Every structure is written in structure tokens, then in C-alpha cells.
Amino acid sequence: MILHLRRFVLPVLAVFCLQISTAGAQSGIPSMGDTARGELTPVAEYKLGREIMQQIKGDPAYVNDLVLSEYLSNLGNRLVSANAETRGELSNDFTFFAIRDGTLNAFALPGGFIGVHTGLLLATQSESELASVLSHEIGHVSQRHIARMMGQAKQDMLIPIASVVLAILAAQASADAAGAVLMGGQGYALQKQINFTRDAEKEADRVGFQILKGAGFDTTGMTTFFQRMQTATRTYSDAPSPYLRTHPLTADRIADIEARVRHEPYRQHADDIDFYLVRGNARIDQDDSEPALHNAATVFEEQVKSGSRIQMTAGNYGLALIALHRKNPADAKAYLQLAKKSAGNAAAKSLALNSLSIEILLESGQAAEAAREARAAMNLFPSSRAIAHLYASSLYASKRYDEAAKYLRKQAQSYRDDPDLQRQLAKVYDALGKKALMHMALAESYGLVGAYQAALEQLKMARQSPDVNFYDQSMIDAREREWKKIIRESLKEKS
Fold first, then answer.
1. Helices 273-286 & 309-325, crossing angle to 10 degrees?
2. Fewer CB within 10 A of the end CB, N or C, for the chain?
3. Which of 272, 293, 325 is the last residue of a domain?
4. Quick one: pLDDT at residue 144?
């Protein structure tokens, strides 16, 4: 028994010894390391989150729906901007995105990247409910729970290691005693993780509640959504939803939220019309197979029959999305007109309705009209990424290639992390016969989603293009060095 433990612990003990600080060595007591803030700086946290996000963007589950993404971004940043202290130690912007998944879940990545499953978006029944989930995730980020958890994990890793060391000594007297020491150390580490998670959830609730309140949303949205999830879990399954597994709801946590709500005056919040519309996008983004579209159409038709103006608008908008997806722009236009009619004055301020109108014109072959409408929409939504992409698409469809290239180059300078802009730019360069620039733009689009080998292959083709010039060659060389370095560092980390 003693020999077996010794063979197991020798390599581990070496790691344990490396963790002992100078002060710890002097006192004879091993140090468990510095605080989590010393373990992972805000800059390192953002870099880690950005690397993870790069991989997510290349995954089929990532929802590349500009209208839905923009709605989440606008809602999320409204919450972040409600209180100057929300950002905490992070100076970078928050990023909000959707994941194609029918389960009820949301999550925060290091550095302020917050994802929402399409299933959760469909489960929320008011904008305040959705805002409460985002506020909770923002709370995790602002309190740097992920950085602290990583630091905690590094410290907790030493607990079972120390247990093994003690078990060797205990085994000299009793094998049973050695086993008890090992189990006790593992159990203590697990309990510490559970306690940390519970504390982090309560802290995220507290911070999220203040964010929700400061942004002018109905704070009861936090309790109604959590209560509905718990009820659904008890009614339909013994297994909790993914959200409840990753965000465990305890009785005292719910009571704490309810107490906070009771002490606040009721505040009615007028939901943005796009909250109801983009749920149609989420339903189709989640599953666009023909059987799923048939089921979605049934849901949208029921909304139209409800008699509620907002539900009628959402239902007809959803039916227009399905018609467009099926390449039937005439029906899509008819449903869109019905949606606009029931929306009334709110239609003009809806990004979803304006964007869909331009898409229908493009699908109908009315490129010039689409460009005019997109240009007008840019005045209404000057910072809209969805409208910017549609304007570029309409310029391309109108064969205004030089104008499209100029516009896209300017956009790419302002939004350097947008791979779609680079893909659009590549199409325009191809139409202009600029092969080197086309391959360079494609290389940038691959690089932005972490597909560095594919990016390097595009650079190789750009270098071999007959129209490549000296300036292009220098840009290619610089990018090639940069991406090869990233690949080498990645391989080194894996090894």
C-alpha cells in the first residue's frame, strides 16, 4: 500500500513543492498562492475570452443572424451602461451573442462575452425577463467570478495533492487512515467549489438586480423567470434545465431575490417591439428544417389569431421570415405588410421590420430599391451592423462594385473583428477581377474565426495572383508571420 501510494505521489509531490513560496518555505508551511486577481489579470481574462469566442464563431452552433445579434447587443449594452460601476475592472466592451440550442441556458465567458441559447430566448415572456438573465450574467463578469474561480481552482488543486502527501505518512500506521485522508481532502475541495458557486450566484443576483433596476426594467422579471423554470422542471422532468444546473437556485437565493423585489416600487416596462419579433428569428435559427418550419408556422399562425396587436405583428413577421426562407418573396412581402399594419407607428422604429423589408427587395431582384431603402434605414439606425451589411449587399447586387468596395473597406477599418465584412469584400474584389485582394480578404475572414491554416492557404494564393503588387506582398508577409506565430504558440501550449 505504501509503495503504491509513493509511486503515485512522486510526480505530484514535485508539483506541490513548486507551489511553495519563499515565505512559506521559511515558515515550513506551503503557500496556497496569491488571490485570484493576481492569477488572472483583466487583460489576460479578456484575451482568454476572445480566443474562446474566436472558436465559437467558427462553430455551426453560433447564430450569425445580424438582426438577432444586434438586438441582444443593444439590450445588453443598455444594461451595462446603466451604471458606471457595472464594468468593474474591465475596460473592454461586452459582447452578446446567440447559440443555436433549444435548451434553456445562458453563460458568461471570461472578459465580458455573454451567450444566450435560442431556447432561453424563446422561453422568456417579457423583455424584463430576458434582461434579468443578461443582468445576472453581467454580474458574473463585473465581479470577475470566472477569474476568481480559476484562481480558486488553482488553490483547490493543492488540497487533494496535500492529502496524498499526508496519506503517505498516515499509511505507515494504517491503510484505512490513508484512505480516509484522501477522501477527506477530495471532499473538502469539492465542498469549497460548491460554496464558491453558491456565493457567486448570490452575488451575481445582487449585482444583476441593481443593473436591472438602474436600466429601468421591471425587477419582478427576475423572479417570474426563475420560478417558471423551476415549475417547468418539476412538471416535465426530474432533471433540471441546463440553466438550473449551471446556475443552481436554492431556496434562500429565491427568497433573497423576492425580498429585494418587495422593497422596490412596481415599475411597468414597455417592451421593445423587436423583443417579440426577434424571437421569430430565434425560432427559425434554432432549426430551419422543413418539419421545424412547419411547426414554427403553426406557432406564428396562432399568434396572428390571438387578437393582440403585438402578437399579430410577431406572428406575421414570423410567417414573412418563413416565406423568405422558402424563397417566396411575394408571400413574404404580403406578411410583412400585415405586420407593419398591426405594428402601427412602432414599425418605423423596428430594426427587424426595416431589415426584413430590405432582404425581401434583394430576394425579389429589386437591388436598386433595396439600396435606396437601406440608405434611408442607415439614417434611422446609424450604428446598425445589420443595415450596414444589407447596404453593402444591395450595392453588390446593383453591380456598383467600386462603391461597394470603398464602403466595405471603410467598414472593415471601423469593425476589424467582423469576418462577414471581409467575406463581402472578397466577393466585391472578385467581381472587380482583383484576385490578390480577394484572396487577402478571404484570408482575413478565416483568420478572424481562428482558421489560420485556411487563412495561410489564401495568402499563398494571393501571393501567386498575377495582379499582386509590392504593397500587397508586404501585407501578406506581415500577416503570414503573425498567423504562423499564433499557430506555433498554440502547438507549444498543447504540447
1. 30
2. C
3. 272
4. 74
